[in-house]
Prior knowledge:
Blueprint: E1 2-7, H1 17-20, E2 27-28, E3 31-32, H2 33-43, E4 48-53, H3 57-64, E5 73-78, H4 84-91, E6 99-104, E7 107-109, H5 113-123, E8 127-133, E9 141-145, E10 151-156, E11 167-176, H6 191-199, E12 204-208, E13 213-215, H7 219-231, E14 247-249, E15 254-255, E16 258-259, E17 263-265, E18 270-271, E19 276-278, E20 282-283, E21 288-289, E22 294-296, E23 299-300, E24 305-306, E25 311-313, E26 316-317, E27 322-323, E28 328-329, E29 334-335, E30 340-341, E31 346-347, E32 352-353, E33 358-359
Parallel strand pairs: 1-4, 1-6, 4-5, 8-12, 14-17, 15-18, 16-19, 17-20, 18-21, 19-22, 20-23, 21-24, 22-25, 23-26, 24-27, 25-28, 26-29, 27-30, 28-31, 29-32, 30-33
Antiparallel strand pairs: 2-3, 6-11, 7-13, 8-11, 9-10
The structure holds guanosine-5'-diphosphate-alpha-D-mannose and magnesium ion.
Magnesium ion binds near residues 106, 215 and 217.
Amino acid sequence: MQALILAGGEGTRLRPLTSTVPKPVVPLVDRPFIAFMLEWLRGHGVDDVVISCGFLASGVHNVLGDGSAYGMRLRYVEEPRPLGTGGAVKFAEDLLDERFLMLNGDVLTDIDLTAQIAQHERTGARATLALVPVEDPSAYGLVRRNGDGSVSEFLEKPSPDQIDTNLVNAGAYVLHRDVLAQLPAGQHVSIERELFPRLVDDGLYGYEASGYWLDIGTPERYLQATYDILDGAVETHVTDAYDAAHLAVADGAELHGRVVGPALVGARARVADGALVTGRSVLGPGVEVAEGAHVDGSVVLDGAVVGPHAHLTQCIVGPGARIGARCRLGEGVVLGECVTLGADNQLAAGARLSPNVSLPDGAIKF
Ligand code: GDD
Ligand code: MG
């Protein structure tokens, strides 16, 4: 079974995490985000994956390689310029099988693709979209269905007065290659706005999925995904490594302070005496948490250092960042790669600092 993963968006809403790394390979808990997607696909019989890259494509290739680590064949296509979701699949057309799966590359999910494919076969559809319920459909593609499961309307990013169902497009499709004939080649086109509405009454079906589903495209949702993985709310292999206290501690990590599970501590990470890690946190490989520091509900990526008595609440710290003594980082703060904060800085209210920014001692009390 073949799958095409769209991974060419710039990930602007996840900046500065995506300033230096393409969104698909931004680390989530303990692996590149898209690895969760590959493992899920593998579990549903997918062994051939084409990744449609745009922005920082070589970065994706360098991290994922030829797919042997995931038990599948991985190939990459790179558009000369971003062609949109429809343009991207059209650009990859020559590599595609007659029937294939197409996935938005920014979704963490464990929905049952096998059941979706079975429904697709049963109905004789040309395209079957997985549908999931969300609280506010306005940021998604709203899908209305007939009694037989066929789609009666597809509305991308509906306005408030158009919302009369909470079922939206999950970004997981079973497609027949022949539907691509309706898309122009080499042009920027949206599959959601230009193809799906045209396939209404022409073989477009919706499959109502149950299970976990989250578009991880913002820092808030990235943290939510982290918590859900650590809680085991979504099926992944991360929790396989848990001890009785729901702690996954990699080789060579040194825990002198207290780490409350569920939590994950990467290889060679070090939590000093008197430090505290709580609230479903992740410490990447080589991270250091100094004495008296408190990391709560936060993700601290590879090699970052949390200084003595610093306090982090629900924030994301990029790789190699250095946080000075007694700094306080509040909810939603995101530090890019190698940001350096001198002692006694206070950041709150979703502040984001670009990679390599350096602040002297006491520069910000926000
Ligand atoms: N190759 C390539 N080229 N990929 C692209 C391009 C492009 O020009 N533009 C977007 N993508 C990829 C993104 O990287 C992402 O993985 C996927 O296509 C969807 O694009 P988003 O920009 O994340 O779209 P969205 O989240 O606003 O809406 C889409 O996803 C929702 C579910 O999360 C739509 O498919 C909605 O209908 C859907 O509900
Ligand atoms: Mg998205």
